[in-house]
Amino acid sequence: MRFTCVKDNLRDAIFLVERVVGKRLTLPILNAVLITAEKGKITFTTTNLETGIETRIHGKVEEEGKVAIPVKVLSSYIASLREDQITLVSNKDTVTITSGGTKTQIKGFSPDEFPLLPKVKKDEVFTLSAEVVRNALSNVSMSAATSEIKPEIASILFKFNSNACHVAATDSFRLAEKRLPYSTTEPHTMNYFLLPLRSAIEIMKLLEIGDENVEISITKGQISFQTRTFLMVSRLTEGMFPEYEKIIPSKFLTEVWVKKDALLDTLKLASLFVGKLHDVTIEVSSDTKTLEITTSNTEVGENSSKIAADIIGEKIKVSFNHRYLLDGVTHLNSEDIFLGFASSSGPLVMKNKGDSSYLYIAMPMKV
Q: Are 337 and 353 in contact (CB under 8 A)?
């Protein structure tokens, strides 16, 4: 194999694919990037057996072939070069990289050892805006469970119906759902799928590069995301996502409209005084038109802050996990936000004012 390419293009391609590579001492080949040169294109592939990424760049291919190279070594080396043009030549499992007056050899692996990315059959295909997918995952992923004990809630739900795609996540203590506009006349063979949280985090990072659309292809147990820049393949989580719609209140004991920035600042202040349980107490009163947040820590001190709010309903006092509240408020984007209290022991619903496409739910604490 022999090809010449622009250094910046090579550097960007390596940076894109190396993110899924870990430290697999038992399987060293998984620490490598597979480089394939053919028909004027150079393809870079990495995988950790759960997720795989592939991207391509153009270059002058003088001799077709493939080789696997330790990706961290290659990435660090390419970043240190100053010349614009790089020539890469492979001889069996050894790669020689030439750039200006610099010549280096890197020991690689046989490309035959590298696991192939699965070819995802296009049993079900959706095309969505890359920005919309990225923002939806960003809005819900913090609510997914981080433990793999229950894989179905350590995943992000994508659920399709005739006019919307519901993206949701929960760790049983909180829930976030984003509803995306979506319509199709094609019959569905798969109405929902569960994307592992780790894969969701990777696709969010990949979509930051700004592609206009992403094609999502699904088959049993596998999913692929493809844009003009990259292809990412991931396994899907097996299992049933909780029927979360049942916990979303249809009526509220108390309804509150408050300025987002005021509530956010108050919660950040309260974080200085939270105790070991990370609990904060919210008390709202329609008589005084105030929302009061109280925290106490025997080792640090205590804090109580009141902010003005429009309140309808009964006086209520509830405790919540501070971080859950802060996450919820942070991901709302309207100037005024809605808080709906179902009861003193029921869930708290947060929404943007005038926008029902996103909701966040936090369950109360028993303190």
A: yes
Closest by Cα among 264, 253, 279 to 348: 253
Largest Cα–Cα separation, the chain:
80
Give pLDDT tens digits for 307-357: 999 999 999 999 999 999 999 999 999 999 999 999 989 999 999 998 889
Domains annotated on the chain, with CATH: 2-113 (3.10.150.10), 124-245 (3.10.150.10), 248-362 (3.10.150.10)
What's the angle, vertex CA 23, arms to CA 116 and CA 87, rounded to 5?
65
Q: Which DSSP letter does residue 188 get?
A: P
Q: What is the pLDDT of residues 290-302, one digit of tens each?
A: 999 999 998 889 9
CA–CA gap between residue 70 and residue 9 (Å, rounded): 18
Q: What is d(CA 49, CA 31) in angstroms, rounded to the nearest whole number?
A: 11
Tell me the pTM: 0.89
Q: Across-strand partners of 342?
A: none
Query: What is the spatial distance between Cα 114 and Cα 130, in angstroms, rounded to a whole number?
Result: 30
Strand order in the sheet with 85-91: 60-63, 2-6, 85-91, 94-99, 102-107
* In the block, residue with structure tokens 């203590």: 173
